[in-house]
Amino acid sequence: MEHENGTGVTEFVLLGLSQTWEIQLFLFILFLIFYSVILPANILIILTIQGNPHLDSPMYFFLANLAFLDICYCSVTPPKMLIDFFNRHKTISYEGCMTQLFFLHFLGAAEVFLLMAMAFDRYIAICNPLRYASVMSRDICCGLVVASWAGGLMHSIFQMTLITRLPFCGPNELDNFFCDIPQVIKLACTDIYMLEYLMFFSSGLSTLMCFLLLLISYGALLVRLRVGGPSKGMSKAASTCVTHIILIFIMLSPAIYIYGHPFCNFPLDKVVSVFHTVVFPLMNPMIYTLRNKEIISSMKRLMGRHRLWKGKQEEV
Hints:
By secondary structure, the chain is mainly α. It is built from eleven helices and three strands; from the N terminus they run E-H-H-H-E-H-H-H-E-H-H-H-H-H. The protein has one domain: Rhopdopsin 7-helix transmembrane proteins. The chain has a three-stranded mixed sheet with strand order 2-1-3. The longest helix is centred in the middle third of the chain and has 36 residues. The radius of gyration is 22 Å and the shape is globular. It is found in: Cell membrane; Membrane. Pfam families: 7tm_4. GO terms for molecular function: G protein-coupled receptor activity; olfactory receptor activity.
C-alpha cells in the first residue's frame, strides 16, 4: 500500500552493526550491561538533585533536565537495536522510521539548546554574581528549559517536513542500525541535491556554529576567572566550566561528524553513530557527577537513607 506522499516503500531493512552472530551476541551483552549500570545511575542523579534542598540551584536544575533528556534520547533507538540483535531479518516500518527520525532530532536539538542555557547560567554566575539570584529565578530557568524543548520541536518539524515529502519507491536497505537522515534521503526516488544542502545547513552547520559559540563563551569565562585571581570560589567555577566544555565535546563532536560532511558513507560512520546515540548521551551526566563532590556526597546520603529505611522495613 502506498503512502500519501507517493512512496511505495512500507518498510526499511536495517543492515545493523554486523552480520556475524558471535559479534552480535557480544555487542548485545556489552550494551545490556552498559544500560543496566548507567541508566539507573542517571535516574539516581535526577532523584538526588530533586530530593536535596542544597542542590536547589539553576546549575543542578539544568543538569537534572539534561539527564532526563539523555534518558529519553537513549530510549529512541537502542531498545530496537537490542531486539534486532536476535533477528536475522532486521526491518522497521516506514512510520517507525519517521518516528525515530522525529524524536532523534527533537531531543538532540533540545539538548543543544539546553547546553546554551547552561552556558548562559554560568555567564551570569561568573560575570554578574550579585544579580544571579534575580536573573536566574525559577521562572526564568523553567522558561529556558521550555524554550529548549520548543527549539528542538521546531527543528525536528522542519526536518520532517522535508523528509516526509520524499517518494521512496526502490531500494529500502539502510546501512545502519537505526533510521537517520544521511541514510534515508539517499533512498529517495528523486533528486536530493538541494535537500542535502538544506540538511547540511540545518543540522551540520548549525551544530558546528553552536559548538564554536559555546567553546568561545566558556573560553572567555575561563580567561575572566584566571584574571580574577585564585580563590576557592573561582577554582570551583573554573572546574564547572571545564566540565561543561567536556560535555560539549562529547555531545556535539559526533553530531558534527555525522551531519557535517557530504551524505556519503565513511568507514567510521557506524562507530560514531553508536557512540552518538547509545554511549555518550548516558555518560554525559555521569561525567558531570564524577567531577562534582556535592552530588556524590548527596548520592551517598540518599542511598544511606534508602538502606536505613529498607532495614527498618525488614525489621517490621
